[in-house]
Amino acid sequence: MICRATVSRDGNFFLSLINRAKTHSHLNQTHAQIIHNNILNDNITITKLVQKLLDLKATAQAKLLFTHTKSPDLFLYNVLIKGLKAYPFDSLLVYKNLRQQTTLVPDNFTYSFIIFAFSGASLSGSEKFGVLLHGQAIISGFGTDLFVGSALVDIYGSLEHCDIWVFNGMVKRTMRIDSTTLAVVLSGIAELQEMSFGMMLQSLAYRLVAIFTSMCLLPDLIAYNAMISGYSFNNKTESSVQLFKELLFSVEKVNSSTMVGLIPVFHPFGHLELTSLIHGFCFGILELHDIRLCPKWLSHFFVKCRILILIQILSHPVTITSILSACSQLGALSLGKWVHDLIKRESIESNIYVATALIDMYAKCGSIKEARRLFDMTRDKNVVTWNAMISGYGLHGHGHGHEALLLFDEMLCSAVPPTGVTFLSILYACSHAGLVTEGEKIFHSMVHEHCFKPSPEHYACMVDILGRAGKLQDALEFINGMLIEPGPAEWGALLGACVIHKDTNLAHLAFDKLFELDPENVGYNVLLSNIYSTEHNYSWAALVREVVKKRNLVKTPGCTLIEVKGHPHVFMSSDWSHPESKSIYAMLEKLIDKMRDVGYQMETITALHDVEEEEKELMVKVHSEKLAIVFGLITSEPGEEIRIIKNLRVCLDCHNFTKFVSKITERIIVVRDANRFHHFEDGTCSCGDYW
C-alpha cells in the first residue's frame, strides 16, 4: 500500500504565487489551485487575486470572481472600485452594490476611488455624477478628507474655476495638502491663464509654504515644479526664478521638469538672457542623465518659438539631433528639410552627430537616395553613422538588401567594429529583401566570429527571415533551438509568416504560445482570424473575433497621414470628417472605374464573411490610405510625388490599389507603414510584393 503525503497550502502560499504571477495563464492556474485547496472564503487571498487580475487587464474575470465571493469585505470593494477606474460606470455599479446590498459602510478610500474614476471620464454627464458623489461624501463625513479632496480637485478642474473653489475650501479647513493636490490645482490655474487667478496663485503659494512650514515639512520637488510652472504660465517670471533659486538651496534636486516650467511662455523675446542661462545651466550644471533629457524640452520650446531657438541655441549639435530625431519618428520630411537648411546656414553639417541625424532622418522619411548622398559626404563615420545607413536600407527593403550587404562588408573592412545594433540592422535588411542564405551567414558570424550573444530581437529577425521565405518548419526548429526562452517577438514573427503562407496548423501552435505570453494583444487574434478567412474557414474566423469581443480587446484603428503644403491631414477608414470629403470620394470612384478597366480587382478575402460581396468591397474601398492618396492627387501638381504614413501594416488590397494608381496617374507614391517603406512607380512596388 502506498501512502501519499498531503501538502497543506495556506493563504500565504497562494499570496506568494499571485505576487509572482506574470501572465493571465499563471493566474488561472493559481486560481484553480485556490479552488482545489478550498481557500475561496479567504478574503485576503481573493482580494489579492482580484487586484492582480485587474493589473493584467482581465477585468471581466475580476468582476466574475468578485460576484462569486460569498462575503466580500470593504477592502475588496475598494480594490475593485479602484481597479475599474477606466470603466467609471462599472465602478459606479460596484459602489451602488456596496451601499444597497451590504451592511458595509464606505470609507474615505471608497469615495476617493469612485470620484477619481469619474474625474478622468470623457463621457457626457460624468461631471454630474462626480458632484453627486461629492454630496454623498459630505453626508458620510468625508467632505474634508485629504484623499477625497484631492480627487475632487481633479474632477472639478473640468468645471471652470471650481477646482480653485474646492482647493480654497481644503486650505480654509486646514486640511493636509499633499504635492499631488498642489500639482493638480496649479495646473488648473496655469491653464486658465487669467490675471485674477494669476494674482491668486501667489497668495496660494505663500499659504501653501506656510502650511508646509507649520507642519515641520518642506515642499517636495513635485510641489516646487508645479508652482514654478504656474508662475511661468501666468507671466510671473521673476517669481518663478525666485522660487527656482530657493529650490537650488533646498535638499531637492532639480530635474528636467523644473527647467521646462521655468521657460518664459508669454514673452520669450523679452527674456533672451534668461533663456541663455537656462540653456547653460542644463548643459553645464545638470548631471549626465539630466542632460539627456534637456533636448526634449528644448525641442518643445523650439515648436513654440522657432526663431528664438535659431538665435540662441539651435547651433548646439545635441539640440539639432533631438529635433531631427523627432522629424524621423513623425516622418516630417518638410520640417526636416527646413532644419537641414538652418544647419547649412549655421555651417555645422560636418559635425558627425548632426550628419548622422540627417542621414537617419532622410532614410526614415523615405528619401533613401538623399540619405546615401549625405552618408558618402560624411568623413570620419562612427558606428552610429554606419548603423543609420544600413538600417535605412533595411526599412526600404527589396532592391536595397544587396546595397545593405555591400555597406556592411565595407564597414567590416573599415576600422569601425560592428555592434549588436549593426547586426540587428543588417538582419532586418535581409528579412525584408528575402536574403535567407546571407541572413543565416551573418547570424552565424555574429555569434561565432564576433562573439555576440543574440538578443530576442536578433532571434526574432532570424525567425522572420526564414518564415517570410516559406521555411516555416526551419523557423520552428530555430525557435526550439534558441539558447533563451522564446518570447512574443519570436512567436509573433512565426505567426506573421503563417499568415503569409496560410499554414493554419503551425499558426495554432504560435497563437497558443502568444496567448500564454501576451494574452491582451489583439493583433495576434486578428492575424489568426485572417488566416481562417483566407482559407474560407469563416466559422473559425468568426469564433476568434467573438473571443476578442468578449474579452473587450480593441484593435488599433488604422489611420494615414499626408502632408500637403506644410499642413498635416489625417484620415481614418470611412472618414467623412475632412472638408474635401465629397471631392475625395468622387475622385476615388473615378479612379477605381479606370483601374477596373485595366484589370484591378479588390481583395476582399479577409473582410467579414457574413456580408455580401458588394459590402466587402465597400469596406476595403474606404481604407484610410486610399483616402489620403486620393487627397494627395487632388491637391498636388501633375507628376508630383505623393508621400503618406500609415500606422499599421498596409493590407493586400491597398497595396494593389496603390500599384494601379501609380500606373494610371504616372505618379511616384511613397508609403511608410508600420514595418517598412513601399515605393510605388509605374505599377510596381519596391518591396517586390514581399512584405
Describe the structure.
By secondary structure, this protein is mainly alpha-helical. Helix content is 65%, strand content 4%. It has 37 helices and six strands. The protein has a six-stranded mixed beta sheet, with helices on one face. Helix 22 (352-364) runs antiparallel to helix 23 and helix 34 crosses helix 36. The chain is globular, with a radius of gyration of 30 Å. The model is unreliable at 1-7, 157-168, 170-175, 189-202, 285-314 and 606-619 (pLDDT under 50).
Helix content range: 55-70%
Shape designation: globular
Q: Summarize the main sheet.
A: 6 strands, mixed
Mean pLDDT: 76
Strand content: under 5%
**Which regions are unreliable across 5 or more consecutive residues at pLDDT < 50?**
1-7, 157-168, 170-175, 189-202, 285-314, 606-619
Decide which structural class fits the backbone: mainly alpha
Put simply, the count of helices is 37
As laid out across the biggest beta sheet, the strand order is 2-1-3-4-5-6
Evaluate the radius of gyration: 30 Å
Task: Say how many strands there are.
Answer: 6
First-last Cα distance: 64 Å
State the gist of this model:
By secondary structure, the protein is mainly alpha-helical. The protein is built from 37 helices and six strands.
